[in-house]
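quick q for whoever's on today - can somebody do inverse folding on this one?? i tried earlier but teh output was garbage lol. tokens:
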């Protein structure tokens, strides 16, 4: 027997729960009695009531016979009248469409999803993220230790500070990233790196400061006219001027 993945069972249960209310509305309803049957039942009840009135002495026999004849005439007239054909719409197409909804959803998931991937429990993902954060923090400490032994004006130190800034930015420490990149800029200026340092400084402070605005200006002045980030830098400078 082929084992069914739990995700398909869960999807089937969810689809059934979602479509159950609609399916219940499509059940064949108990057909109400037509006008013919209602009229026949009414006239039979009238005959019963006339017989009871005669037995209790409420009406005379002649009146009873006349009333019975009239009711029987109406009864025969109602019995000869047929009910109109039922106008209930066919439910077949609706049932077919109802069945196609979960089938179409399963097909879309099968073509675009990844049902064969193993489950990734939250606890395991959190543990992996914490381990990665610890590794990155260890890398930052090692970089700082190595950089402390280098000539701060050397090209090797500059490359190390650029790497340190990239790592700090991945960790979300924009203050540390801006500091490392600005140290690298002191050795050799690069407009793209200046832009990154300016943006990191602005993010760390929650706004464009005088320091980050100065870096944006230096980056724009040194960058080629077709630099893809020129418009963004100009918008950031406009934010500083609008304050």
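ok took a stab at it. sequence:
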């Amino acid at each position: 027997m082929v084992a069914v993945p739990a995700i398909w069972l869960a999807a089937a249960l969810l689809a059934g729960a979602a479509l159950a209310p609609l399916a219940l509305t499509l059940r064949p309803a108990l057909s109400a009695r037509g006008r013919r049957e209602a009229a026949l039942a009414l006239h039979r009840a009238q005959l019963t009531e006339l017989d009871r009135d005669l037995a209790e002495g409420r009406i005379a026999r002649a009146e009873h016979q006349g009333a019975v004849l009239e009711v029987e005439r109406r009864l025969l007239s109602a019995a000869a009248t047929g009910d109109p054909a039922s106008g209930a719409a066919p439910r077949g197409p609706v049932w077919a469409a109802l069945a196609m909804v979960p089938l179409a959803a399963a097909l879309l998931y099968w073509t675009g999803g990844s049902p064969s991937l193993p489950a990734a429990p939250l606890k395991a993902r959190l543990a992996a993220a914490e381990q990665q954060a610890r590794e990155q923090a260890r890398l930052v400490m090692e970089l700082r230790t190595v950089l402390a032994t280098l000539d701060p004006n050397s090209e090797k130190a500059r490359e190390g500070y650029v790497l340190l800034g990239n790592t700090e930015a991945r960790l979300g420490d924009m203050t540390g990233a801006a500091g490392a990149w600005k140290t690298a800029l002191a050795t050799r200026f690069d407009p793209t790196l200046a832009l990154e340092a300016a943006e990191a400084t602005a993010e760390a402070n929650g706004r464009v400061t005088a320091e980050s605005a100065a870096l944006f200006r230096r980056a724009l002045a040194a960058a080629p006219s077709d630099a893809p980030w020129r418009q963004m830098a100009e918008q950031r400078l406009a934010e500083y001027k609008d304050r």
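fwiw The first helix runs from residue 6 to 25. also Residues 50 and 65 are 9 Å apart (CA to CA). so keep that in mind when u check it
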